[in-house]
Amino acid sequence: MAVTDEAIEKIKAMIVAGDLRPGDRLPREADLAERLGLSRNSLREAVKALSLIRVLDVRQGDGTYVTSLAPQLLLDALNFIVDFHRDDTVLEFFEVRRILEPAATALAAQRMSDDDVQALRKVLADLSDDASIDELVANDLDFHHRIAAGAGNALLCSLIDSLSGPTTRARIWRGLTQAGAVEKTREQHAAILEAIAGRQPELARSWATVHVAGVEDWLRVALQGPVG
């Protein structure tokens, strides 16, 4: 194991063991290096690496702190990686969405507040019949985000949000090229909403699966032929 990796693992172990908690300030560099049996240089490199993935927060003139370790914060690194996806990997993002979103939708049917259900209903109502493709996609992203948030699991919501970006181009492409895509999206959104409002988690799960899988299946076929 590289020296820096060893240093990272030792700091991680302190956090996992509870020796360092969210918001705690790390001991002085010299003291921590001695405690962990590390060189100050390897400790310094480990701190840099952990600050990049938002585990540590280096405050100039103040010290180094453990962050809140909130899922949304830690997933910033995943969002950065996701931004480098290639078009030929977009199907993999849809496959993961097909696994996660139906589960989130089922949870939303159980946990979403009545006020949030009404807000979700308003999202659909606000989409005009002559909406542009850009407006449709923005509405679609908002709809899916609200359901993910309504699942009541911050980590699950962050994961789903991070997967939305790479699939946006495919949604636009489908809206522009597939006949009836806009109408089908609206119908499926309405069915998902009614299942959530009716507190029917398995029906909500089923409609979410149909919805995401439909786009995935269309894209799989589209990628096999010429792109127009």
UniProtKB/TrEMBL annotation:
> Which Gene3D superfamilies does the record cross-reference, listed alphabetically?
GntR ligand-binding domain-like (1.20.120.530), Winged helix-like DNA-binding domain superfamily/Winged helix DNA-binding domain (1.10.10.10)
Q: Sorted alphabetically, which SUPFAM superfamilies does this protein's record hold?
A: GntR ligand-binding domain-like, Winged helix' DNA-binding domain
**InterPro entries annotated for this entry?**
GntR_C, TF_FadR/GntR_C, Tscrpt_reg_HTH_GntR, WH-like_DNA-bd_sf, WH_DNA-bd_sf
Q: Give every HTH gntR-type domain span.
A: 1-69
> What SMART domains does the annotation carry?
FCD, HTH_GNTR
- A Pfam family (short name) is GntR
Q: Which UniProt keywords apply?
A: DNA-binding, Transcription, Transcription regulation
- The name under which this protein is listed is FadR/GntR family transcriptional regulator
* Organism of this sequence: Paractinoplanes globisporus
